[in-house]
Task: structure prediction
Amino acid sequence: MLIKTLAKSVREYKKPSILSPIFVSCEVILECLMPLVIVKFLSELQYGGHKGSALMEVILINGGVLLGMAVLSLLFGMLSGRFAAKASAGFAKNLRKDMYYAIQDYSFANIDRFSTSSLVTRQTTDVTNVQMAYMMLIRVAIRCPLMLIFSLVMAFTVNVTISFVFLALVPVLAAVLVFVIFKTHPIFERVFHKYDNMNRSVREDIKGIRVVKSFVREDFEKKKFEAASEDVRKDFTLAERIMAVNAPVMQFCIWLSFLLIFLLAAILTSNAVAAGDVAGRVESGDLTALIMYASQILSAVMQLSMVLVMIIIARTSAERIVAVINEKSNIVSPENAVTEVKDGDILFENVSFKYSKDAEKFALADVDLHIKSGQTIGILGGTGSSKSTLVNLIPRLYDATEGAVYVGGVNVKDYDLETLRNNVAMVLQKNVLFSGTIKENLRWGKEDASDDEIKRVCRLACADDFIQSFPDKYDTYIEQGGTNVSGGQKQRLCIARALLKDPKVLILDDSTSAVDTKTDAMIRRSFREEIPNVTKIIIAQRVSSVQDADQIIVLDGGRIDAVGTHEELLASNEIYKEVYYSQNKIGAAAEAGAQAAEGGAANE
Result:
């Protein structure tokens, strides 16, 4: 499953992925044939009896053959490396693209499963690890087994007895490799989670640098990062210590093989001379070839060990990448989806919701609510009363756990997602602006919006005045995250961006909290006058932001405590009264005076 998923990302890079192993195979064949040519060359020099021009001819012919083979081997190696680099880089590009596209399709519930820092690590470090492993797989991992097999076969053609040295040492090396693999894989699985923690520490520190500096917490942040970095270092050090066993064992086996080859060659030659068996002697050319094959065999095993270590690291990374790619959104458009939203009528029918199936209690419970198209609805409630949760169900950012939500008389689950979300504009609590000009940011609402349309929505959101004060006006560049505009300006730009969609429903989730009360009132007045047919849902902390709404919903503990107008709630709902009077001291004093007067009258 893991390999099958990753293989889909090779796509247009299949050709270089195939050519690289082909060229590396040609390179290996030539390298394995060269020692045999050297044996032939040395034999001709030793026993040919050539003199003068004949000797030079032998040298030139055999030297030319060796040079030609070396040049061809070099050429094949370069081509193999070129195609391997192209294939691995392209594979990594496709992996990042596939992960990015998968994340774009996630619902909020899917995003909740992965932390931002973890997704960043998977897109960078993990993909790089898999890229390196893939490059080794299509080049080194092909080269090493071929080199091992061909060199062994060639060594046996030179001298069968001495070649058994290789067969004796290969299992020892294999045992060391198996030990390294089993010991290091759990460590690398653990270390990547610690990478996520380290990235999270960096991300939080950079994002909250102003808070860090204002509270003089630089030392604390340094210690936090140092602790996260130290955790990564400890695990990597442990893994490296285990892998360090590999290299000295390999070197030991190489020198041991040389020793055994010389020893066996000496014994065989000595025995042959004593027995008068000329054919049984080990010639210098054969000895040279066996030494070369020993180097090739053992270096192939050493390279194979490096590949396997890289694969161990990459396996963990690959599992994390595949987890992102295979994560399917739990919110998708149905077949034969509705592609038109009739109006902004909203109905909550016995709706309950919880963020996790395993959660003990519902975040939102037993909601029955009807909002008529064109109405202005205010939502008030304490922190954690599920105000944002309620409105997130309307554009289907989450699906209701129980009950159903209807927009325009149609269940939101029956809509095409793009259609629904294009008709339900939402300005979230966390206002986000992207790097680019003001026009570019606003055109997220409508790509082909004209300058006149942009100015109109900016006037509605009371943003045109401050935009005109900028030297570049609507071409003013916005830094990443909107750091070069104030909080209130950012909110108004986000409202304008939402209005540019020309929605049937407009949701403002505490989106005027950084705006002064005068501007807030102007925005609400422009909504009443300019977009009367749009259903407007305003979540606010200030009663003044919602008191002129057609209906005000009071939420408490994930349930609707009361619904009514400002006057009705002020007369009948304790939560609303408490919020209102805490924000209006004059009103509180007046109520206290009225209660005192009533008490005095009763005493009389």
